[in-house]
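FAQ: What does the model actually see?

It sees only this:
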Amino acid sequence: MNRMIRTACEFLVSQNQVYIASTDDAGYPHLAVAHGPTLSVSGHLVFEEWFCPTTIQNVRKNPKIVVAAIDRKTSMGYHVQGAVVETEENAILNGYLAGREAELRGLPQIRWRLVIEIDEVMAFSDAFHNDLPLNNHSDV
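And it is asked to produce this:
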C-alpha cells in the first residue's frame, strides 16, 4: 500500500463519521453515513455497520465505492475511491421489537461487514481544492 493511501485510510479510521457513496447499476447515487472503519492488516478499509438495504444492493451490483470524511476543525479530509471486495452478514435482528414490523419496515435488520480495497486518494475539503489524485506514485 502506498504511503498516501495509508495516510488517508488512517485518517478515515480516526473519524467518528464518514460518508459512503455507491451507485446502482443504472448510475443512480446513494449516500450512507457510517462510523469510522477499521484498517485490516492487508490495508483494506473494513466497515461493520447496519447499512440500509440500498447500500448493500448497490455494492453487490456495482462494487465501486467512495468513502469521504472531513475534519471540521481544519476543513481538510480525504476522499478515497475503491471497490468492495467482500460483503458478509455478521449480525441479524430476528424478531426484534416483535409487533412493530410495519412501523419499522425498511430499517436495517442486518449488520454488514464490508471490506474495501482503496486505489485512489483525493483531498476533500469545504475550502478550495482540486480533484487530482494524490497517490500517483507507489511509495511503499
